[in-house]
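hiii, so i know i said id send this last week but things got crazy w the move. better late than never?? heres the sequnce for the chain we talked about at the cafe, plus the structure i predicted for it. fair warning i was half asleep when i ran it
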Amino acid sequence: MKEAIDLTEGALSVRRIIAFLAIIVLVACAGGWYAKRQITQQASNKIVAELNTPSGQAELQKILQDPQVQAELAKLKSSNTGGLHFDSEQQAVAYAVSKLSPTETIQLVQDYLHRDSLTEQQKLQIEHQVLSQFTPQELAAIADAMSNS
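okay and structure toks below
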């Protein structure tokens, strides 16, 4: 009988350890999700704040006036947005940043800061990498928001 009690106590110890580990995993996952959400939100806020500065607005307008960009925006704007709509370019940028991982966002900001030192091949690779994160409908909605500014 004593052996049966010892086995039951051992089983309870194992169950407690498993329950403790499960709680640790849940807390770690929740913490990771929250950290990613916070980092993404901070990055989005910084990008939107930069866009709202006079130099950010000037840079954005310069980019939007580029004939190649205009052609791409016109093509995308005529696409179906799938019901997705942004009220402002800042809202579109915030949405776009939220689609990227924190690592991708940081890398994109670094690439932007060093854009003058990038080759055309590197720029095309970055463009492809970023655009691959979005559906055609998302790109059309973002293009619509950018061209309406």
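btw The chain is about 80% helix and 0% strand. thought thatd interest u
miss u guys!!
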